[in-house]
């Protein structure tokens, strides 16, 4: 046997080559490309790996499209233990996806312990990631508009000096949550298939630092946008789930009863979208023929800077 043949399967020696020579910071970065349950499994590789996953800068908890196969109870127990062991370690990115359990959260009754527990804990996990100084936060409760959103986030302000990107899909938010004036670094904001609960009044979004805004297939009233002086890119899809529609043929919605009283609780009938969006350099607006919100806003004659 050649002298080197017996050494082919030998692990790299300490201080030699291989992945073990990389510093902890690099290994933690690599772990960020794995889903959370896969990252945790690396603790059995060697003594050095035992706690590396606890300080990974990216946390991916995905329970959709065949990922994280298991029950709601298993998911809740795993994530609760994961966050308890991680403690307050800072995060660059946190991605929470629960599309596999959409039906467990959608319309669950008071007796549905698993569905209600999951809704409570997803809320807890979301705010925990904010407290970990997360920079990019993604929460997807439902895929697209397949289910009416019922996962309710706590109606409180998001206070973060670190958050730069927020993407939410299939969740319900109150008016206090929609005020991002305490997030000075937030430059990307996306809502997909969400519902804004403002007590039957038109919700307002305050995000003065946002550079890129995406409003996709919003349920209920289209939100009124407050000034966004930094806005460069905007993409709005006013879909069939919006309440801002008119079924009357040959209707001039500027004077129609469906559009005249659609302002906020203070009686304001100011521009809903276009006044703010006119600041954008790149703008895309999509809606069905029955949608009157864009036509109504044009009466304010916004001057587009694009």
TrEMBL record:
<protein>
    <recommendedName>
        <fullName>F-box domain-containing protein</fullName>
    </recommendedName>
</protein>
<dbReference type="InterPro" id="IPR001810">
    <property type="entry name" value="F-box_dom"/>
</dbReference>
<dbReference type="Pfam" id="PF00646">
    <property type="entry name" value="F-box"/>
</dbReference>
<dbReference type="InterPro" id="IPR053197">
    <property type="entry name" value="F-box_SCFL_complex_component"/>
</dbReference>
<dbReference type="InterPro" id="IPR053781">
    <property type="entry name" value="F-box_AtFBL13-like"/>
</dbReference>
<feature type="domain" description="F-box">
    <location>
        <begin position="16"/>
        <end position="62"/>
    </location>
</feature>
<dbReference type="InterPro" id="IPR036047">
    <property type="entry name" value="F-box-like_dom_sf"/>
</dbReference>
């Amino acid at each position: 046997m050649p002298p080197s043949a017996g050494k082919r399967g030998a692990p790299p020696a300490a201080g030699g080559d291989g992945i073990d020579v990389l510093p902890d910071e690099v290994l933690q970065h690599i772990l960020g490309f794995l889903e959370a349950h896969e990252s945790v499994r690396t603790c059995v590789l060697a003594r050095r790996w035992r706690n590396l996953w606890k300080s990974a800068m990216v946390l991916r908890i995905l329970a959709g499209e065949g990922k994280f196969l298991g029950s709601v109870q298993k998911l809740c127990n795993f994530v609760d233990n994961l966050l308890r062991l991680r403690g307050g370690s800072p995060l660059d990115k946190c991605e929470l996806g629960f599309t596999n359990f959409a039906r467990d959260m959608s319309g669950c009754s008071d007796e549905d312990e698993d569905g209600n527990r999951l809704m409570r804990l997803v809320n807890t996990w979301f705010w925990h990631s904010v407290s970990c100084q997360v920079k990019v936060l993604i929460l997807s409760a439902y895929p697209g508009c397949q289910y009416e959103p019922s996962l309710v986030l706590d109606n409180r302000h998001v206070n973060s000096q670190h958050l730069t990107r927020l993407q939410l899909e299939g969740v319900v938010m109150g008016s206090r949550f929609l005020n991002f004036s305490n997030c000075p670094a937030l430059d990307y904001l996306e809502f997909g298939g969400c519902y804004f609960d403002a007590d039957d009044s038109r919700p307002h979004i305050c995000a003065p630092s946002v550079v890129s805004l995406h409003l996709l297939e919003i349920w209920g009233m289209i939100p009124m946008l407050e000034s966004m002086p930094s806005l460069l890119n905007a993409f709005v899809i006013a879909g069939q789930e919006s309440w801002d529609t008119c079924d009357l043929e040959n209707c001039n919605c500027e004077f129609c009863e469906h559009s005249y009283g659609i302002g906020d609780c203070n009686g304001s009938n100011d521009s809903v979208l276009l006044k703010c969006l006119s600041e954008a350099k790149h703008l895309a607006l999509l809606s069905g023929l029955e949608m009157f919100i864009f036509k109504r806003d044009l009466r304010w004659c916004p001057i587009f800077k694009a």
